[in-house]
Amino acid sequence: MPPSPRPLGVAPAPASYSLNLFPRRRCLPARHAVSMAASHAHDAHFLRRAADVADRSAGLASPHPNFGCVIARPQLETDDVEAWVVGEGYLYSQGTPCAELLAAEEAGEHARGATAYLNLEPDDCYGNSTAVSSLVQAGVTRVVVGLRHPLKHLRGKAIQLLRHQGIQVDVVGEDLQSKLFKEALGSCLIVNAPLLYRAAFHVPFSVLKYAMTADGKIAASTGHASWVSGKASRGRVFELRGRSDAIIVGGNTVRLDTFTCVVDPRLTARHVKGGHVPVRIVMSQSFNLPEEANLWNVHDAYTIVATQRGARRDLQKKLAMKGVEVVEFEMLNPRDVMSYCYDRGYLSVLWECGGTLAASAISARVIHKVYAFFAPKIIGGVNAPTPVGELGMKQMTQAIDLIDVSYEQVDRDMLMSGFLQPIPDLSPVIPSVDEIPSVDPEVSPYETNIISFYKTWDTFGAFANFSPHPISLPDENGDCFTWPTVEHYYQAHKFVSVDNPQARDIVQEIKQARSPEEAARIGRTRQRELPELIGSPRKLM
Ligand SMILES: Nc1c(N[C@@H]2O[C@H](COP(=O)(O)O)[C@@H](O)[C@H]2O)[nH]c(=O)[nH]c1=O
Predict the structure, then answer these.
(1) What residue owns the CA closest to ligand 1's atom 5?
(2) Where found (predicted)?
(3) Which of 9, 248, 462, 492 is most buried, with most CB under 10 Å away?
(4) Average pLDDT in the 157-178 region?
């Protein structure tokens, strides 16, 4: 609870201010009308604080975003800007009062003439006790917004409503352009990275977490893994789980830990009593799972087993009797499971799986961030498992570079975290249709019917060659063949029109490639090595 501010004894300040950025050291008498320019430095400071406040709802508010609201007004009696905060709040669960209402209630009369800082444009606009009505009734005269709402049907609505109520609304990157906002904007993006990724890619924000010894192993060759990382690191893992809607492990993790009686995983966020308990998802194509396991105790947490259609129906029934939900997929793969999680409203998923499944998820481009705990120990073991299995990369130059990498020591361990794909910054975004004429009458709202699909994770990424979905087409003999991806089909058809056994072998090799990346690598390499086998383009269909 911020210290209650001393009344300034002033009438609500006008909507715009002019602040003496270098106030004289002596305290001005409080009766002086407070005037302050919207100082970018102060705005950035409070916006960053709003993002930090919003982060308190991580894992609790899903599928709602993490909203934070800080209401502040200058107090000339003190240089301590923290004392300028008169109220703050965050959405602490679904169906609870919005952050703006909580902040306004805390600020009371001190909200009049103050500025409200929001990490994200509110979503609930219409009706009482909503973000907009709370700010209007509180009497704030200015609102600073970090990010417009990323969901198109909500984008720009609250901003427009607040402006219609005569409140000055400054959006970072639009009305507020200054490098001073770089860090605060970064905080606004990160605190809602799950929502931004979900809105952009239509899959939950996925984090791959593993603990690895200094010699690159996640367990001994026997599978024994208790523990690689220390207690403090495992505490951080509990926090990560507490922010996630679901945790994913492979069947091997359950089998291994249970059969070797090593650590029968529970995958619960045991750091706080009564904290958020994520769903546990086991991906197992064969359904070759133990009848008894901690994970089947649904009193700890809800458990889902994702499997291939028809796998071990007898065991499915037994687990279903224990309250485990079994979901069957035509072809069990990370992207389909993530689409399923998207449909269930999950924002954030934590993958705590073995290397095979981790590689498959990375290849399917559903992993967005990595948390790697490095432990200062050596275990050795030629067959000891490693964090990521086969990605089809044969040259180090193909390695995926992490971006926005952070390093942190956690007791004796080192935590490295980084993004595999940049946070999709949906701002500056196209303002909602009815705002466009006021923004730029020349721009038709339908200008944006051009689509791009450079990457499989673009909105229309399904049109990209690498998009992980099969296509069935007649081959040169007229027989229907199902290609794993368009890339497989494209690379193979460089060689089909040459009647040569080597060319036919290459086509077979590409057909068997386990990923579009591998198909591309084979096609390009063979094309470079044997240009004479490249056929003249002919009707491919
Ligand atoms: N051994 C190991 C990890 N192993 C992961 O944690 C799971 C067991 O966690 P729990 O079910 O909470 O006991 C296990 O299934 C595997 O996914 N994680 C780590 O952070 N550090 C470690 O040293």
Answers:
(1) 352
(2) Plastid, Chloroplast
(3) 248
(4) 92
User: Do 206 and 355 fall into the same domain?
Assistant: yes
ipTM value of the model?
A: 0.86
Query: 83: helix, coil or strand?
Result: helix
Question: Comparing C-alpha atoms, which of 520, 514, 515 is closest to residue 492?
Answer: 520
Nearest CA to ligand 1 atom 8: 265
User: Does the pLDDT at position 24 exceed 50?
Assistant: no
Please give the angle made by the CA atoms of 324, 328 and 334, to the nearest 5 degrees. Answer: 100
pLDDT for 273 equals: 60
Ligand 1 binding pocket mutation candidate from 208, 212, 263, 284 (most atoms within 8 A of CB): 263
Pair (309, 380) in one structural domain = yes
pLDDT band with cut points at 50, 70 and 90 for residue 128: confident
Instruction: Give the catalytic positions in this structure.
Output: 100
Range of lowest pLDDT (222-226, 297-301, 362-366): 297-301
**Of residues 420, 334, 337, the one with CA closest to residue 371:** 420
Q: Are residues 263 and 391 in the same domain?
A: yes
Helix, strand or coil, per DSSP, at residue 458? coil
Of the pLDDT bands very low, low, confident and very high (cuts 50, 70, 90), residue 76 is: confident
Residue 462 CB neighbours (<10 A): 13
Indicate whether 165 belongs to any domain.
yes
- Give the domain range for residue 510: 461-533
In a domain, 86, yes or no: yes
What pLDDT is attached to residue 48? Answer: 97
| Cα–Cα distance measured from residue 134 to residue 127, given in angstroms and rounded to the nearest whole number | 10
